[in-house]
Amino acid sequence: MSSHREAPEIAKDPVADSADLYAFVSPDRPDSVTLIANYVPLQRPSGGPNFFEFGDDVRYEIHVDNDGDARPDVTYRFEFTTEVTNPNSFLYNTGPIESLDSGNWNRRQFYSLTRVADGREHRLAHRLPCPPCNVGPLSTPAYAELARQATFRLSTGERVFAGQRADGFFVDLGAVFDLGTLRPFQQLHVAGRKVFRVEGEPVNATDRMNVHSIALQVPFDRVRRPAARYGVGDPASVIGVWTTASRRQVRVRGGDAGTDVATGPYVQVSRLGNPLFNEVIVPMSRKDLWNSLPPSEDKRFARFVEQPELAALLPALYPGVFPNLARLTKAKTARADLVALLLTGLPSGLVDGFTNATGEVQADLLRLNTAIPPSSRSDRFGVLGGDLAGFPNGRRVGDDVVTVALRAIAGLTVPLVDRAFRPDAAAATVTPGLSAADVTAPFLDRFPYLGVPYDGVTSPAAA
């Protein structure tokens, strides 16, 4: 998955697990950037009586680098507090929740938002309420209205939301991790030829699941560095984005009140930039280390980008389908195209009218050229489909990042840096076979963009 349960240790700590990260120029406010960081993945909608929530003991942050050193120039920090109004009830709510101050709602979350820039911290908001989880039609009869009430416009220009949303990521997880099965090509799989006679129908494993989203809409001048101009080719137009979750270094269990006590400095336990980086590029033995490091240390992992394991697996799993890729990997050719896509950004001259390069520092960041306006007609394959406003220029909620990543690893992007290389015909068609149309909850055309979360009564996932 994009980053759901991507490393052994963070898989045990879903409250701090960064699941997806999005960064794009806002279609509903094109002078701003929308940043969305999802946490607490794979939520079954029927998860009561202890419904899902952010962690009071977790520091969530969205970072922006605007000068190319892979270090945060602007950070938005979210810290949460949970309050129980009736300690003698086991219920999440005792009646319909029709407003954020409803007396029927027993377990509420609030958060503070702090902006860190130029070495200074500025608290932008305190005690902003989250909406409840979408319990069901009796408990949360007008959920979209509750989410609207929990969306705030700050005096400093930001718009903010923190709460439950429908998971918009689409992936055929069961097939992909069954020895790399791609259902549209399953009958060509080295083992699948004995099992499958025809291509199969993909299944969106994350459909009808919820996540908890931290969403920000930020004016350009709050994230870009000052410059005389911000054209497509100007370095000041490009920002790099990543998200992290941190916990206190020391945790003492079972105090006098039966509660744990956390103390000491915060230690990073999770991070996310590009989708699938830690999931697919970083080897198992280093995944937890990667989660603990800042992007400025990603040169340690560059060799796994230059020669990704999956590029060697595709020809082995699908004999005869990727002969050119097989020769490329056998020659141990360093994949400069993937280094540009994932670690440095694409320099000018590789794609007409486009660049999102941030310099020579190798770092896993979502790189967004803010001078490229939203597309009137977006293509789900982003830059590979001729739509310069899409992935890997940032990431929009509907971008088919799994297919784009597969096609890049399969060799489709090699000609960007080696015009003599001819990609295999399959490289332009390889896909898990899913799109945004396979997400049941429709995306919104406005902030916070991800759809209304599924409830535990009407969603089949509750069965």
Characterise this structure:
Strands 3, 4, 5, 6, 10, 11 and 12 form a seven-stranded antiparallel β-sheet that branches. This protein has helices at residues 143-149, 173-176, 277-281, 287-292, 302-306, 309-317, 323-330, 336-344, 401-412, and strands at residues 18-25, 32-43, 58-65, 74-84, 107-117, 120-129, 152-153, 159-166, 210-219, 238-252, 261-272, 366-369. Helix 6 packs across helix 7. The protein contains nine helices and twelve strands. With 463 residues, it is α+β, with helices and mostly antiparallel strands. It has one domain. The two termini are 23 Å apart. It holds the Pfam family DUF4331. It comes from Micromonospora costi.
Task: Furnish the topology, listing elements before pairings.
Blueprint: E1 18-25, E2 32-43, E3 58-65, E4 74-84, E5 107-117, E6 120-129, H1 143-149, E7 152-153, E8 159-166, H2 173-176, E9 210-219, E10 238-252, E11 261-272, H3 277-281, H4 287-292, H5 302-306, H6 309-317, H7 323-330, H8 336-344, E12 366-369, H9 401-412
Antiparallel strand pairs: 1-2, 2-9, 3-4, 3-10, 4-5, 5-6, 7-8, 8-9, 10-11, 10-12
Spell out the helices and strands N to C.
Answer: EEEEEEHEEHEEEHHHHHHEH
What is the averaged pLDDT score? 95
Radius of gyration based on Cα positions: 22 Å
Largest sheet: 7 strands, antiparallel
What assembly state would you assign to the polypeptide chains in this entry?
single chain
Poorly predicted regions are: none
